[in-house]
Specification:
With 593 residues, the chain is of the alpha+beta class. It is built from 20 helices and 22 strands.
Length: 593
């Protein structure tokens, strides 16, 4: 019996973990196995982009055995050619426009298959300080790592690679891939995606560099490319890091010895001698706590990267930072044709705040004494990393979304949300809850998270203002009408007729770390209702026929968008599925409906 491709992926991942310098051959043959495409489809069909068209009309709708066989045949006889991506533009936070490439769904499917193999090969070899677009890693894992490794740092270098995705050199990327992948046919498929070009305003444009953002392969190809930067910084760190000449300063050691002697004498002292010793010990303890204990002559570089944004923390001089910045800029430009942004690559003292992944980061200079569980006083917060909420960013978000208007400096007045007045009351509350949870859950690592209480307060009263505007009432009357104990809640009926309550979420309800679930098998789908199993069952889920030549998947962007007038819509709504396996005749009838 042929081994499933998911098992092969697991084996490649394990081998790459054990042999970092391993080389892989004959990968192309795995692209000719049909089971991997069903696995890829299972991953893609639930995404919002599954119904987004590229330059053709191909989407997740219509997938089936014929679809897979046709793609495999083209790969087998060497006639497969990816279509150019459709280019769109999305607005960035700074007002500029970012190009976004939208591939055909058929190309997305093959890209997802290739991505699985690249992930199995390269994921175990990536730096532990890389966090963007990687399994089990996120902005939060990058921030937690910064909090741990940046303790005591003196300087920050804020790194930003200008137009990283657009400027990746194709030839250099292929050269990097060929170091581990010795299969020209597999590499040529990746090359064909890079060179596919794009359509904009119905005109074809060839691509000479870059990985189009929006493509499934782009994130992992960018990580493979930028892993060279991670390796270079690891080399710099190895040469730069220097331990302190001694662990404790001589002054601190001297005071510690004096305290030890006087405390020893105190055990047998009486009368005036004891009083004098206690006074001396008190004065020495005050001096001891004010004297720096750590030697300041060590050197160290720490680093965290998320996609093309990175932050370097340095224990050294500002001149060291300038040299390091120039060294990295030269390395990236000379070796990989990438440019460090002059406007965003800054050198900042660690006592000041730097913005990284939406947080403000600084190193505390806190001289306050705190008593630990053993009753010892120490400056426990000194030299620790503080992650803070940038309130001006939250204020701007509320203002741009129309939740508030500014009355004076740092003072806001809640507004009703005009576009939500037509929604059911419970839906209005849920949308506000989603906004509150989104902000609070993202900033759960912040040391000043409690200050988001003002944000939650403004959002609650904006919600009340929206409900009041909808019912032509006042906030006071809305609260009185829906009063539930100390709070208020909107009562609503579910589809089965049960009565439930929808409350506005509180700050305390959002706090808490979101743990990832442990996955035993990275490349298998643990469900009995996979698309492949449903297609292989050979039963039309609409008409029930079992004797048709082939079956296809009917796919819709959202079950909520179905009105339930047709039988197929009623079935999909009852099953709460975005897919329906149907025969060709039923699929044609659905589209003709």
């Amino acid at each position: 019996m042929t081994k499933p491709t998911s098992d092969i992926l697991e084996r490649i991942y394990k081998n790459s973990s054990e042999h970092k310098d391993g080389v892989y051959t004959r990968l192309y043959r795995y692209l000719l196995r049909d089971d991997i495409y069903y696995l890829a489809y299972q991953k893609l069909y639930s995404n919002k982009g599954a119904s987004t068209k590229g330059i053709d009309n191909d989407t997740a709708d219509g997938f089936g055995k014929k679809y897979v066989d046709s793609l495999i045949k083209e790969l087998s006889d060497g006639t497969y050619t990816p279509k150019p991506v459709r280019r769109e533009y999305i607005k960035k936070k700074n007002g500029k426009m970012r190009p976004l490439g939208i591939p055909s769904f058929r190309d997305k499917l093959l890209q997802e298959v290739i991505r699985n193999f690249l992930e199995a090969i390269y994921e175990p070899t990536f730096s532990d300080f890389s966090h963007g677009f990687r399994p089990k890693r996120s902005c939060h894992t990058a921030l937690e790592q910064a909090k741990l490794y940046f303790r005591g740092a003196k300087w920050f270098i804020e790194g930003d690679i200008k137009g990283c995705f657009d400027d990746i050199d194709h030839d250099k990327l292929i050269e990097i891939l060929q170091r581990k992948i010795k299969d020209s046919r597999f590499i040529n498929v990746i090359r064909s995606f890079l060179k596919a070009g794009y359509m904009e305003d119905w005109k074809y444009h060839q691509t000479y560099s870059g990985c189009p953002q929006g493509g499934i392969l782009s994130p992992i190809l960018a990580n493979i490319y930028l892993n060279e930067l991670d390796n270079e910084i690891a080399k710099i760190k190895q040469a730069f890091d220097k331990p302190a000449t001694r662990k404790i300063t001589p002054e601190h050691s001297s005071l510690s010895a004096k305290l030890f002697k006087r405390r020893k004498k105190l055990k047998s002292a009486t009368g005036e001698q004891r009083t004098a010793l206690l006074s001396e010990i008190h004065d020495l303890e005050e001096q001891y706590r004010k004297t720096p204990s750590k030697m300041q002559d060590d050197k160290k570089v720490s680093y965290v990267r998320y996609a093309d944004d990175f932050l370097i923390a340095e224990n050294g001089s500002k001149e060291d930072c300038v040299r390091l910045k120039e060294q990295l800029a030269k390395f990236l430009f000379d070796e990989y044709k990438l440019t460090l942004s002059k406007d965003k690559t800054l050198i900042t003292h660690s006592s000041e705040r730097v913005r990284f992944l939406g947080y403000d980061i600084s190193v505390r200079r806190n001289q306050e004494y705190m008593t630990d569980s053993r009753g010892r006083k120490a400056r426990h917060l000194n030299n620790t990393v503080a992650l803070s909420v940038p309130f001006e960013k939250i204020e701007k978000h509320m203002f741009e979304k129309g939740f508030v208007r500014q009355t004076e400096a740092k003072k806001f007045r809640p507004l009703h949300k005009k576009g939500w007045l037509y929604l059911p009351d419970a839906e209005i509350v849920e949308r506000y809850n989603a906004e509150i949870r989104g902000i609070v859950n993202y900033y759960y690592l912040a040391s000043n998270l409690y200050k988001l209480q003002y944000f939650a307060y403004l959002m609650e009263y904006s919600c009340l203002a929206t409900l009041a505007g909808k019912h032509n009432s006042t906030i006071k009357k809305i609260v009185a009408k829906h009063k539930q104990g100390k709070d208020w809640a909107i009562k609503y009926k579910t589809e089965n007729g049960a009565t439930k309550e929808k409350r506005i979420v509180k700050l305390k309800d959002c706090k808490g770390k979101c743990e990832d679930k442990i996955v035993q098998h990275r490349y298998s789908v643990n469900t009995n209702a996979t698309i492949r199993a449903r297609l292989q069952a050979g039963i039309c889920e609409l008409c029930g026929s079992k004797d048709k030549a082939s079956y296809e998947v009917h796919h819709v962007p959202s079950v909520k968008g179905l009105d339930g007038t047709s039988l197929w819509e009623q079935i999909m709504k009852s099953k709460r599925r975005k897919t329906l396996v149907v025969c060709e005749d039923c699929h044609k009838a659905i589209h003709d409906d």
